[in-house]
C-alpha cells in the first residue's frame, strides 16, 4: 500500500496541488476537456471519505499581469462539484488572501475549497519561498497530485514541501500512478521495447528521454 492510501485524513485539512489547467470555451468559459479534473477526483474522494477536508490549488492559463477573467478558476467550480457527486465547492477569490485563510480555517470534514489561480502571483512561477510558506499555512497535509506541472520548481510544487514534515507531505493517487508507470519502464522493462512520447511540450520530457535512450530499442516522439 502507498503512503497516501495508508494515511488517515480524519480531521485533517489536505492542501492539494492539482492540475486544473483545462481548456475553456473563449465565449462561454465552459470546460471543453475535463480530463485533468477527472484525474484528481480519486485523490479528493479518498480524503473526503476519510473524514478530512480538501483545499485545492492550481493554475489556469498563462495570465501575464495578475488576475484576469479568462484565467479564473471560478469557471471550474460547477463542473468539479458535479464530478464530486454534488459536493458543494467553496471558492476563495485569492489563494493567499484573508478570505482564503478564513475559509480554510472554518472548513469542516467533507468540505472542499478551491483557491483562485496561483499564477495571478508572479511569485508562483518564480518559486519564492515566502509565497510557498503563505500557501502552506492553509493546510495540515500537503499533497502533490499535479503530474503535468510536477517537473517545474514552482512555489506550489517543489518549494512548498519543505514547510511540511515528511510524514505530512506525499504524492496523490495520480502522481503515484504516473511515477510507478515511469519506474516500471525505466527500471523493469525487458528489451526490446518501444517508448512513445507525445504532447505539446516534448522539451519538458528531456530527463525522461535521456533515461529511455539508454534502455529503449526504439523511441517514437509524436
Could you explain how this protein is built, in words?
The chain has 222 residues and is α/β, with parallel strands linked by helices. It has helices at 3-6, 35-50, 77-83, 98-106, 122-126, 129-136, 155-159, 173-188, 206-213, and strands spanning 13-17, 53-57, 89-92, 112-115, 141-144, 169-171, 194-197, 218-221. It has a 6-stranded parallel sheet, sandwiched between helices. The longest helix is centred in the N-terminal third of the chain and has 16 residues, at 35-50. It is globular. The chain starts with a helix and ends with a strand. The relative contact order is 0.15. Mean pLDDT is 88; it is low at 217-222.
Short description:
This protein has 222 residues and is an alpha/beta fold. The protein has helices at residues 3-6, 35-50, 77-83, 98-106, 122-126, 129-136, 155-159, 173-188, 206-213, and strands at residues 13-17, 53-57, 89-92, 112-115, 141-144, 169-171, 194-197, 218-221.
Give me the secondary-structure topology.
Layout: H1 3-6, E1 13-17, H2 35-50, E2 53-57, H3 77-83, E3 89-92, H4 98-106, E4 112-115, H5 122-126, H6 129-136, E5 141-144, H7 155-159, E6 169-171, H8 173-188, E7 194-197, H9 206-213, E8 218-221
Parallel strand pairs: 1-2, 1-5, 2-4, 3-4, 5-6, 7-8
Low-confidence stretches: 217-222
Task: Write out the strand line-up for the largest beta sheet, numbering strands in chain order.
Answer: 3-4-2-1-5-6
Structure annotation, total helices: 9
First-to-last CA distance: 34 Å
Relative strand content: 5-15%
Please state the CA-atom Rg, rounded to the nearest Å. Answer: 18 Å
> What gross morphology would you assign?
globular
Largest sheet: 6 strands, parallel
Sheet/helix structural class: alpha/beta
**Helix content, binned percent:** 25-40%
Please provide the count of β strands.
Answer: 8
Secondary-structure element order, as H and E? Answer: HEHEHEHEHHEHEHEHE
Mean pLDDT value: 88
